[in-house]
Amino acid sequence: MTIQRLRSVEARPPEAPAAVTGYPVVLKGIGKTFLTQSGQLVKAIDNIDLEIEAGGFVVIVGPSGCGKSTLLNCIAGLEKTETGTVTVNGHQVGGRVTDDVGYMFQQDTLFPWYTVEKNIALGLRYAGKLNHAESRGRVDHLLEMADLSSVRKSYPSELSGGMRRRVALCAALAIQPRVLLMDEPFGALDTFTKASIQQYLLKFWDSLRPTVIFVTHDLEEAVTLADRVVVLSRRPAYIKEIIEVGIDRPRDVYAVKDTPEFLTDYRRTWRALGGEFDH
Amino acid sequence: MKKLAVAATQILLLLMIALYWQYGSVETQLFSRPSIIIPRVVELWHGVIGLPPLWRQVSDTLQATLLGLALGIGLGFSIGVVFAEFPVIRESAAPYLNAINAVPRVAWVPVLTMMFGFGLVTKIIMSALIVFLVVFFNVLDAATHAPEHLLRNVRALGGSRWASVRDVRIWVGLGALMAALPSAVALALVGVVFAESLAAESGLGSLMFNAMHANDTRDLMISAIMLAAIGVVLAGAVHVLQSWLAMRLPQDLRGDNHE
Question: Which of A85, B158, B198, B241 has its CA 20 to 30 A from that of A118?
Fold first, then answer.
């Protein structure tokens, strides 16, 4: 496969779409209650049903504290659901982490004591596949696609914020996840860095085609990236509206902002979320 | 230039102290004088009747200190990071460790002497015990409070508990160890001298203790100066080790380096 340069995504021939590797994810009747520090039971999530097709790109938006991260943790198997089930490719996730799911967190989760290369290969090491020739090739390939080959021996503290996020993205992708969960991954970045890494993300998604479930509170980001934007209500969260984004793929994150589809869907998302702010 | 000035000042200070000690109004009965001490060092170096030669006393003390330090750091660090990962073990052991920690250090010497006799083993274990406690509690605390998001990332990537220890807790613990190292080294020497003064036939601690009984201020001063010299050398070695470690780990060890 040829490596596309960052800005040349537009020019990519549309007749060669990569095969979908993602798995379908089905959420059925998900509910979750919290015990607050003062001892009160708070219902965080209320009965969420959502079907995400294999290789889809779904963005979840909602007011802060509405349980978006909890939802991702349940899909990852880091937390158990209270009611309802999560199935990935037909298999129920029962609070156990599997190789099928990759997770990119909001915080800077790079291990400061390991080099870029070692950070990216960590998941492969856990899977016992570190010494496979295929694994080595994959790390090289990811580094190249993310334009990180020159810093592979560097430590995270030597990189810029945007580069660190790219390393984290590669680390999540190295295990070849069928489902990639992203929890406000670019929230702390400035506008320009954010646009650049969004473009990288779309490039990776176009070529690897995992199912992506992406949480953000940035509506511009949501519409730029998503096939579908799922709008959650404030706590207890339920699905308020699902917006099908009509922008063609492959997308150029810089150019989409000028399309009429972007403006229409952006406004629809705002309207859907609008009612959730007044208290 | 600055280094030269510092070195010159240090030597000047040493000379001034020595000159004052020799010619100033110092109570000779209590503090002796360099002119008395220097011939005595030469005498002791080769050994006098009833005492092992001074070089052997110095090397015995140094050897016990280094071995105690190695044992204490090794055990304190490894048990600390493992306990950090397993709360059930940690919380079950807590009252016992606190009990051991609460016993005054010097009170262990008679117990250890009864178990291991007069000599090297008692010194090493006494020293290791003190070092262990300071290293263990520091490393345990840091590694227990390792950054939560890194631990979560290990789990999300499919890592085991052993992976959490190896990829997160050890490194966080290493930062705490580096910080605790100067006091660990000083305490290792303290432990050895404790044990020597109460239960040994050789070593600077025993030289000091014997001198006190014999009312010999010369030997008292000699052992104190030798211990101070060992302390300075060890502190220097720690400094070198710390900068070496800091170079190998080019990031802050607590892992919270946000932009």
Answer: B241
